[in-house]
Write a structure and sequence with these properties.
4 copies of one chain form a homotetramer. The first copy, chain A, is α/β, with parallel strands linked by helices and 418 residues long. The first copy, chain A, contains 15 helices and 12 strands. Chains A, B, C, D: Homotetramer.
C-alpha cells in the first residue's frame, strides 16, 4: 500500500490552480523573471516525514518568510524580554511595508512588518556581533531550521540592495528613535541578505514543522530554539503573520503562517504539522494567489485549524478493572494527558469509595503527559495515599518522576499493568 | 480523595490578588458601587463539570462579554457570509469604544468593538424582527449559552441608557453608512440591554466552554450554535477579543477571551476548557487587573495555550501484533485520530510487505476520529484491499462507517481486536 | 458712463462656465432637483454697493456657508476664550463631514467641519437659551449679516432632518465627550435649521463684506459683531474654510472663503471686498465647480489675494514745504496711516535739523490712521516738541486726539495746512 | 528727533522676556551650548530700513527658517507647477519631523516639514545640477535674500550630519516613492548644509521683507525671486509655516512666519514689513518661547495682522473740482489704487451728467496703481470718451500707460492737475 497523503496534496494543488490570476512581483527583475506557472505544495509531519506535490524542487528566495525564523533566533540570543523592548507583538493592520511604530515607545509594532524585521535582524547574535558574525548566525540558524545548508541568491541580493530605499528609510527611522544601534545601512544589508536565501517547499515544510514541534527539527533532531521561543514565534505569526488580514486568515485558515513576495507561504499548526506552498503569482496584498487558496483548502479538507472544536469524545479512562479478590482497582488511562484529560481522570479517582485498599494508575496507553497533567496526576496519587489507599503505578514509558506519596512512601511501580 | 482542581483555582486566585491596584468603572453609579474586593475564578470542562474559587455566586453584568455570544447568535440567524458583509473580522488596534470603520466599506472593523457589537446586535433574529422579538432572541440565546435563564439588571440598563451618547453616535454612524437599517436608537437600546444581563463566574465558564466545545452546552447538552459558528466566534475572539492588546494576549495567555467593564473575563480554549474570572478593579485598558493576572497564571500553570507544542510524543500505533500462524497483522491504534495521527498510522500500514494476507485495524483504543482522519483511514483500508490484502476492522465504538473496499467487499468487522 | 465692474463680473462668469462638469448634491431630493445650469457671481464693496452677474435672484440654502456667521455669533455671545475651549482653530486636513476631534481635549478641530459647527451652534445665545431662543438668535444674526430677514426652506429642513444620521452621530460624540451640554438631538435640529436659510448671491456678498469690513454691515450700517470677532472668523476661514484644500486655496485664490453643498461660495478679503458665487454642480470635494473657477479668476483678474505684495511704491510724505521766511516746515502726509506708513513719516521727521523752529504735520490728505499709527504720530510729535520744535497739526478729519506734547503744551491746530 | 521705532521694539523685547521658560534644543551639543538668555528683535521696512533691539549681532544657524527661502529658489529654478508635482501645499497638522506623505501621490504634504524641505532642496538649480552646484545655488540664493554673503557653521553641520538618521529616513522614503531622484544621502547632506548657515536677526528681517516686498531685496535692490514666487512662498508659510499650530498662529498672530530650532522666527507681512526674533529657549512645539510671545505682541501692538479690517475710511476721490467757466470737472484721486479704490473712483465718474464737456482724472496724489486698478481706470476713461466727454489725465508719476480712448484719441496729458 502507498500512503494516500501525497495524492491528497496533489488533489489540493490541482484544485487550487487558478491559471493566470495575480501578478509576479516586479520591483526587481529577478522576481519578475520567474516561471509564473510553478505551483508546489508540501507538508512535514511531527516526526519529520515530508510530502510534496508539484514543483517541489523549484528554488525561490525566502523573502519575508525569513522573518519568523530570524525572530526566533533573536529571541534565542537575547531573550524574549529584551527583544520585546525593541519590537512589539501587536498587529499593525497595515501592509508589510508600512512604517508602523508605536507612538510612545517608537518600537516597531511587530516583527513581521519590514521595520520590525530589520530591527529583529540586528538582535541576532551577541550584542557586539560584527556584521559578518551576524550574517553567519542567521545563515546557520536558517539552515538549522531547514536541516540543510542554505545559500544566498547573490543576484537577487544585489538587485534588492539597489532599490532598498524604503527599507533604508525604516532602518534610519528606528536608528533615530534609538531602537537599533550601529549603522542603519548595515542593518539593511543584513536584512536584505536574510531575505535572499534560496529554499524549496520541502525546506519550508521542515522549517515550519520545526516551529510547530516546539523548536526541534524532526528531521535532524536538532533543537534549534526552545519550546518557549517557538511558542512566542507561533503566537506572533498567528496575529501578525498575514499583515492586514490577520483576522480573516485566523477565521478562514486558522494556521499561523507567513508569506513571502517570492510566492511562498508556510504554516505551522502547533503540535500538528508544517506546511509549505509556492506559486509566484501574487494578489493585491502580496500573497501568493494559489498559495492562499491551497492553505484555505488544506485547513478545510485536513481539519487543520487552531479553533477546531471537533475533538471532544475523549475517553481518558479507558477502563477501570476491579479485582474481585483484592478489591484492587486499576485505572487505565489513554491518550495525551493535558489539563483537560488529567482533570477527567482525577474526577474518576475522586469517586473511589473509602474502603478500597489498593489503587493503581496504569499509564501504559498514555501517549504524552504535559507539565500540568504531570502535576495533577502526582497530586492525585498523593491524595489517594493520604486517604489511606495503597497506590500503584504502571508507567512503562517513565512519564512520571519518582515521587514521595507522603510519609516517605513511594507508589508501587510496575512495568506493565497486566 | 477530592480532586485537587478547586485547590488549583484557589491557589491561582490567591496568588493573583493584587489588593488595591486598578479602578472601578465609574461612568455609571451602579458599577462604581460594586464591592471592589470581590474576586472569583471558574473553569468548566468539556463534559460540563464546573470548578470555582472565591466569590463564585457574585452577580455582575455581562457587559462586553455578551459580544461574542450575540455575534454567535447573529451568525446562526443570518449566516456567516451575511454577517461578514456588515461587520469585519480584523483587529482594529484601538480601544473598545473607538469608532473603527473600514474606510472603503464603512463596516465596523470587528464585532468586539462597540460599533461592531451594536451592528451585530441588529442581526440577531430574522430581518423583520421587531425590537421585542430581537430582545427575546438575545435573552433566549444568552440563557442557552449559560444553561439557565438570565435576567437583565434594570437599574444598570437605565443608567447606561442615560449616558449612552457615544454608543448612540456609533449607531447613527453605521446607520448613515447604510450598514444598519431602522432606528439607530432602537439598536442602542437593544445593545445596552444585551450588556445588562446578570451572570456569575459559573455562568461565564459554562458559556465559555459551550464555544470551546463547538456550540453544545455540555451541562444542558443543548446545541446552541453550530460548530462552524463556534469556530468563527473563537477565531474572532483570538484576534480581536482583547482590543488593542491582541498580540500581547496571544503570546502571554494564548486563550481566546473577552473582557467586560464590570470586571469579568471569560476564555475558551478550543476543545479543552472554558474559564471565567471576576474582579471589578480595572486597568487602563478597561480589563480586570486581577482577571488578567489570573488568565496569565492559568495559561502558564495549566499549560493552556493555543500555541502549545508540547504534545509531541504520540504513539498512534500502540502495537503491531503478528500472528505467527496466519501471518495476520493487527495494528492497534490509540488516541485521537486527526490528520497528524492518521498520517502516522497510514505510514505504518504502507510498510506491510506484499505477501501478508490479512491486515486488521484495531480502533478499540482510539478516542476520537475527525473528518480528515476518517477519510484517511478509509482510503488506507481501500488501498490495502486493492493491494490484495484481506482487511479486518475492530471498531467497537463504530467510529468508521461501513465501507466498500472495492469490488463490493467490506472489511471484516470484529467487536474487539483480541 | 456706466461703471465697467458689472461687465467684469459677467466676463468672469462667462469665462468660468464649464457646462456639465460636476454633480448636483443628491443626498436629499431638494438639492438634486435644482436647475444645474444656474450660475451667478456677486461682489459687494466696503461701502455697500453690490454688483452681480448671472442668476442673481436665484435662492438656495446657505448650508455650510452659515458656519462662519454662526461662529461669529457664538464668539459674540460667549467670547473668544469660551468658544476656544469648545472648538479649536486648526485645519483638520479632512473632508467636511469627518469626525475630527482633538485627541486630548475632545474638541472638534475647528468650527468649519460639521462636528465643530454643531458644537458652535449650541454656543449661540446665553448659556441657558432654549432651543427656540437659540433658533431666533441665529435667524436674527444671519439676517443682520445679510441686511434683510432670511427665511428657512422648510422642505429642505425636513429632508435633511430625516437623513441627519451622521450629524446626529457627531452631536452624540461631542455630548459624550462633555463638549456640548443638553440634548444632542436639539443641537442637530438647530444646526440643520441654520443650514436651511435661503439666500441669494447678493446676500452672500453683503454677508461676506460685513466680515471683511470688521463686523459692520455696510448696507444697513448695523454693527453685527465686533472687529475682533470678525478678524477671528476671517482667520479661521483662511485656514479651515475650504476643508482639506486650505493650502491650495490659500496659494491659488488667497481669499478667506467658505462653500456650501448647495453650490454657493462666499469670500471675504479683509478691508477690501465681499464676494459670492452660486452654481450647483459640485466637484469631488463638495465645492461648486464653477464657483471655484470663478474665485480663482477673480483673485487673478482683480488682484484680490491676501499675499499680494504689489502695493509698494507708497509716498507717505507727499511733500515737505519749507517756508523761506519763517523756516517752518510742513510735512504733508497722504494715504492710509499704518505701522509701515507712519514709520516712513517718522523717519522723515527724524531728519529735521535742530535749528528749525516750527514743524507742522498736515494730515488733510490722510485717508485713515490705525491704532499703531496713531500712537506713532503722537510719539513723533512729542519728540519734536521735546527737541525744542514748535509743533503744529493740520488735522481737518480729527484723526488724532488732542494731546499734551509735554510741559502742558498742545500742538497748534489748524483746520487746513495751507 | 529720533524715531521711536527702536524703542517700540525694545519695549516689546523687554515685555516678552520670560526668563527661564523653555528648553534649549539639545540633540546636538552646539545648540545646547548657546547662551540661553539671548533675545533679539528686528524689523525691516519695505524700503530697507532695519530696526533692532537686543542681541542683534548674535549669530545662530538658520535651521528650518531656510525652508521658505530654498522653496522660493526651487520655485524660481523649476517653476511652480513642477515643484507642486513633487511637494504639496497642505498643512499636515503634524510636528516638523513627521513623515507626512500624501497617500495617493507620495508627495510630502508641504515644503515646511522636513521631508518636504529635503525634497525641495533637490529642486534647486537645473535638473542636472551636481551636489556642489546645488550647494552653491543655495548659498548664493540665501545670501541674496540676506543681502550679504552667508557662511555655513561647519561644526553644527558636522554634528547634524552625525545624527541625521530621521532626515535620512525621509530622504530614502521619498526616493523609494520616486519623488526625488539620485542619492538620498546627497539630498540629506545638502539639506543639512542649507540649515547650517549663520544669520542674525538683522539678516532675518531683511530676508523676511524681501518676501513681503514681492521678491526684491529692498537693501540691495536685487530681485531675488519673482512676485509670483514670493506670493506662493508667503501663502505656504501662512498655512504650513508653524506646523501643527497653523490655525492658532493665523488667529493670534496673523503673520506668515517660520521658526527654527535654533530659536529664530521670522515673519513676512505682505507689502508691509519683515520681522525677525531670536531667543533660543524652545517650547514643546520647538518654537522659541520668547519669540512666539514677541510675535504675538508685535501683531497686537503694531496692528500687523493679515485679517486686519480696520482700514476702512478710504476717501479715494479727494475732491471734485468744477470749473465754473468751462464746466470742466477734475477728479483728484489719492492713495493706493486697487480693485476696491478704483471701483469707488469709477462709481463717482459714473455720476457725471451727460452735458459735461471735459473730465480730467488727477492721479498726482495716487501712491500706487495695481494691475486691476490700471485696467479699471483705463476702461473708465475709454467709457467717458465714448460718452462724448473730452478726457484729460494728470499723471505726473506716469502710473498709467498711454492709451487710445477710441477713435484714435488719447487723453490730454498734463504734468500736474492744478
Amino acid at each position: 500500500m502507498k500512503t494516500p497523503v501525497p495524492d491528497y496534496l496533489l488533489e489540493i494543488r490541482n484544485a487550487c490552480s487558478v491559471g493566470e490570476d495575480g501578478e509576479l512581483a516586479s520591483y526587481i527583475p529577478e522576481l519578475a523573471a520567474v516561471d509564473p506557472d510553478r505551483f508546489a505544495v508540501s507538508a512535514c509531519t511531527l516526526d519529520g516525514v515530508v510530502y510534496t506535490a508539484g514543483d517541489a524542487d523549484a528554488e525561490f528566495t525566502i523573502q519575508s518568510m525569513s522573518k519568523p525564523f530570524v525572530y526566533a533566533l533573536a529571541l534565542r540570543d537575547r531573550g524574549i524580554a529584551t527583544v520585546l523592548e525593541k519590537v512589539g507583538v501587536e498587529p499593525s493592520g497595515d501592509a508589510f511595508n508600512e512604517i508602523s511604530l508605536e507612538p510612545e515607545t517608537g518600537r516597531p509594532e511587530n516583527p513581521m512588518i519590514n521595520v520590525g524585521a530589520i530591527t529583529t535582524h540586528t538582535l541576532v547574535g551577541p550584542p557586539d556581533a560584527t556584521e559578518i558574525e551576524r550574517d553567519t548566525a542567521v545563515q546557520e540558524g536558517l539552515s538549522a531550521f531547514a536541516g540543510r545548508p542554505l545559500d544566498v541568491d547573490i543576484t537577487v541580493l544585489d538587485s534588492e540592495l539597489r532599490t532598498a530605499f524604503r527599507n533604508r528609510a525604516m532602518a534610519n527611522l528606528v536608528r533615530a528613535g534609538g531602537i537599533i544601534d550601529g549603522d542603519p545601512d548595515e542593518a539593511v544589508r543584513g536584512y536584505t541578505r536574510q531575505c535572499a536565501y534560496r529554499v524549496t517547499v520541502r525546506d519550508l515544510a521542515i522549517m515550519a514543522v520545526t516551529l510547530a514541534a516546539g523548536g526541534v527539527n524532526p528531521v535532524t533532531k536538532e533543537r534549534v530554539v526552545s519550546a518557549e521561543v517557538a511558542r512566542q514565534v507561533l503566537a506572533v505569526m498567528a496575529t501578525c503573520g498575514m499583515y492586514d488580514a490577520a483576522g480573516d486568515w485566523m477565521s478562514t485558515v486558522g494556521i499561523p503562517a507567513k508569506s513571502g513576495v517570492s510566492g511562498g507561504i508556510f504554516g505551522s499548526l502547533p503540535a500538528q504539522v508544517g506546511l509549505g506552498v509556492f506559486s509566484p503569482r501574487l494578489d493585491a496584498h502580496g500573497h501568493s494567489v494559489e498559495g492562499v487558496r491551497a492553505f484555505e483548502r488544506m485547513s478545510r479538507d485536513l481539519d487543520l485549524h487552531l479553533m477546531n472544536t471537533a475533538v471532544m469524545d475523549v475517553e481518558v479512562v479507558r477502563s477501570v478493572r476491579v479485582d474481585e479478590a483484592t478489591g484492587r482497582r486499576t485505572f487505565r488511562l489513554q491518550g495525551a494527558m493535558t489539563f483537560a484529560s488529567a482533570e477527567l481522570a482525577l474526577r474518576r479517582l475522586a469517586e473511589i469509595p473509602p474502603g478500597v485498599e489498593e489503587v493503581t494508575l496504569d499509564l501504559s496507553r498514555v501517549s504524552s503527559v504535559n507539565t500540568s497533567a504531570r502535576r495533577m496526576l502526582l497530586d492525585g496519587m498523593r491524595r489517594l495515599a493520604a486517604d489511606g489507599h495503597s497506590v500503584g503505578l504502571a508507567d512503562p514509558g517513565n512519564r512520571l518522576p519518582d515521587i514521595d506519596l507522603g510519609g516517605g512512601l513511594h507508589p508501587i511501580r510496575r512495568k506493565a499493568a497486566r
